[in-house]
């Protein structure tokens, strides 16, 4: 399994950046998790739009889905140019039916996932955890049978993450706030809270993502290191994680 950070900003993209978007690859299968603002331009650095096999969305806030519409246009244009009619599945929850219905376009099809059940997409098996966020949002534990990682998506701290992430090779954690701030009302986590989950869940690596655009982001790593003894990475475009 190979995970590549495409977009890592929270809320809105920093200069020449993108919000949440992650590539997960295994055996020539490419899954994209979330497709936030600025993600499509960055994504094409790594993959042609027709070489993506599936997309899965944690929730429908703009910083996670803003580029879905233009991605659909890109699929349409290149499908005509190549003379192919492959329909791309875009997986999403149906608690927001209007947003879910928008996932279906000429060459994409919205596919509902049931967050109470395990989902198989290509070589990956995915389990879900409902997060604490202002809108319905689901974190994911993704495995290829050999290694696994947990993506918190957007969430305030909750004890459930400790069991859900137990023994994972990597935790890709919401880190939209610094340790001294209160992230709960916004439905996000601090550097400290993500690190506490990582430590108690005994994960190998912690990646801090969904980052704030202000302050010194390296401070987030310092704060996390006070609570987690494993390897800590600050998400940035092009960062690649292997188990």
Question: What would you note in describing this structure?
Answer:
This protein is an alpha/beta fold. The protein has a single domain (2-241), classed as Ribonuclease Z/Hydroxyacylglutathione hydrolase-like (Metallo-beta-lactamase, Chain A). Helices cover 22% and strands 28% of the residues. The chain has helices at 39-43, 62-65, 68-82, 97-101, 160-164, 191-201, 218-225; strands at residues 2-7, 21-26, 29-35, 54-56, 88-92, 108-112, 119-121, 124-130, 138-143, 148-151, 170-174, 205-209, 231-234, 240-241. The strands form two sheets. The chain has a seven-stranded mixed sheet with strand order 6-5-4-3-2-1-14. It has a seven-stranded mixed sheet with strand order 7-8-9-10-11-12-13. α5 (160-164) links the parallel β10 and β11 (170-174). α6 crosses α7. The longest helix has 15 residues, at 68-82. The protein is globular and about 55 Å long. The chain starts with a strand and ends with a strand. The model has no long low-confidence stretch (mean pLDDT 97).
């Amino acid at each position: 399994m190979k995970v590549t950070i495409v977009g890592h900003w929270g809320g809105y993209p920093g200069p020449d950046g993108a919000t949440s978007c992650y590539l997960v690859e295994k055996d020539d299968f490419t899954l994209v998790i979330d497709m936030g603002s600025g993600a499509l331009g960055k994504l094409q650095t790594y993959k042609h739009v027709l070489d993506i096999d599936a997309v899965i969305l944690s929730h429908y806030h703009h910083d996670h889905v803003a580029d879905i519409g233009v991605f659909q246009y890109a699929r349409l244009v290149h499908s005509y140019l190549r003379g192919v009619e492959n329909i791309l599945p875009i997986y999403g929850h149906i608690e927001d039916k209007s947003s879910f219905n928008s996932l279906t376009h000429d060459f994409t099809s919205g596919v509902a996932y049931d967050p109470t059940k395990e989902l198989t997409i290509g070589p990956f098996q995915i389990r879900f955890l409902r997060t604490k966020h202002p809108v319905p949002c689901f974190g994911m534990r993704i495995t290829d049978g050999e290694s696994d990682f947990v993506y918190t998506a957007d969430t305030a701290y909750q004890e459930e993450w400790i069991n859900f992430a137990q023994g994972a090779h990597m935790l890709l954690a919401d880190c939209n706030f610094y340790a001294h701030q209160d992230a709960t009302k916004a439905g996000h986590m601090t550097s400290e809270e993500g690190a506490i989950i990582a430590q108690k869940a005994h994960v190998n690596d912690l990646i801090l993502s969904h980052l704030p655009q202000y302050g010194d982001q390296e401070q987030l790593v310092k704060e996390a290191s006070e609570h987690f003894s494993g390897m800590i990475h600050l998400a940035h475009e092009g960062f690649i994680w292997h188990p």
